[in-house]
Design brief:
Blueprint: E1 27-31, E2 35-42, E3 47-51, E4 57-70, E5 73-77, E6 82-85, E7 91-106, H1 113-117
Antiparallel strand pairs: 1-2, 2-7, 3-7, 4-5, 4-6, 4-7
């Protein structure tokens, strides 16, 4: 079964999930040729191994608390925090508490990306 994504103009909530967090899967809200936005669910103790992507990323903590290790520098994101990670920077995540993150990823190697930024 395919995951349904938002259609242009459709609204969804990114408010904290509270008691529903543990039953909610990670979900991509949408992905187009230039941008992907998802809600990442990380139960306490969950580790996302180190990796890097070709485009810049933002990580906004909606609820919980997550440790982000970027090239050996650790940051903790709390509810309301927004973290910018430049393209190509290796990072990994560790959920300190049950957490929900809003992750936005620019996809620069898709056709037409450079033209849309000019």
């Amino acid at each position: 079964m395919a995951i349904e994504h938002l259609s242009s103009g459709e609204i969804t909530s990114v408010l904290p999930l509270g008691d529903k967090l543990k039953q909610t899967p990670t979900m991509a809200f949408f992905k187009d040729p230039h941008l992907e936005v998802l809600r990442m669910i990380l139960p306490a103790g969950r580790h996302v191994p180190g990796h890097a992507v070709d485009g810049p990323i933002t990580v906004q903590c909606i609820e919980g608390e997550v440790s982000v290790d970027m090239a050996g520098t650790k940051k903790i994101v709390h509810p309301g925090d927004l973290l910018y990670i430049a393209a190509g920077i290796r990072y990994e995540l560790l959920a300190i508490k049950d957490s929900s993150l809003l992750v936005t990823i620019a996809l620069p190697h898709s056709p037409g990306y450079a033209q849309t930024l000019e």
